[in-house]
Amino acid sequence: MTVNELTFTGEGRVRTHFFGHTGHQLVGALYSNAEFAELNQRIRFVLENRRIARESGSWGVYYNFDQYLYESDEEEGRGLGVFGRFGASDGNPNLMQYFYSVGVGGTGMFAERPHDRFGIGYYYLDIRSPTLEGLLNSRSFFRDEWGFEAFYNVALTPWLLLTPDVQVIGPAQKREFRTRENVATAVVLGFRAQVVF
Fold first, then answer.
1. What is the 3-state secondary structure (H, E, C) of 67-112?
2. In the CATH hierarchy, which fold is given to the domain comprising 7-195?
3. Max Cα separation, the chain?
4. In a 10 Å sphere around its CB, with 0-12 CB exposed, 13-18 middle and 19+ buried, how is residue 17 labelled?
5. All structural domains of the chain with their residue ranges
6. Both ends of the chain: CA-CA distance in Å?
């Protein structure tokens, strides 16, 4: 007897002191033995078998790190650092086969503004686009996605924070489903207020 639809996951995280400054390293993995719809489908298979093709099992691994390059106050978590992430999966049935992100961030970089924070980051998603193989042609639906974000968190008081934010996104969707027009790069401007209790 086989037990299906189980998911196993685990991760480990350690604190480091590279360059004499605080950092963290994290590694994780997951596996599922469930059955999923396969990303690539052939019309001929669907018509002959009266069902969509299936894929057994799925896995993923990931790695995260953050590392201060400069610390003005270790106990308060103030300083300047870098961070990054990497993830990989089997690419079928997962759409996201690889993921990368890197960035720079800081808190309390100026003595007169100890609660201000900022961050700049970039990510890239390697998409395994589903392909529909018809009787006469094939069609794929997605492309790789990328994005950039920058924010500055202005602490008007220790409990009132205002944050302007900008994001630039090259979306995974290639075309609008109804109009068939290409989906362009998006620019999103944001602004939020936060009250900290």
1. EEEEEEECCCCEEEEEEEEEEEECCCCCCEEEEEEEEEEEECCECC
2. Porin (2.40.160)
3. 71
4. exposed
5. 7-195
6. 54
- Find out whether 133 and 43 touch, Cβ atoms under 8 Å: yes
Pairing of strands 41-42, 131-133: parallel
Whether the CA torsion 171, 177, 179, 182 is positive or negative: it is positive
Distance from C-alpha of 67 to C-alpha of 21, rounded to nearest angstrom: 7
Query: If we measure between CA atoms, which residue out of 190, 173, 191 comes closest to residue 182?
Result: 173
CA distance 183 to 65: 33
Tens digit of pLDDT per residue, the chain (197 long)? 456 688 899 999 999 999 899 999 999 999 998 887 776 667 666 666 777 777 788 899 999 999 999 998 878 788 999 999 999 998 878 888 999 999 999 998 888 888 899 999 999 999 887 776 766 667 777 889 999 999 999 999 888 999 999 999 999 887 776 777 888 899 999 999 999 88
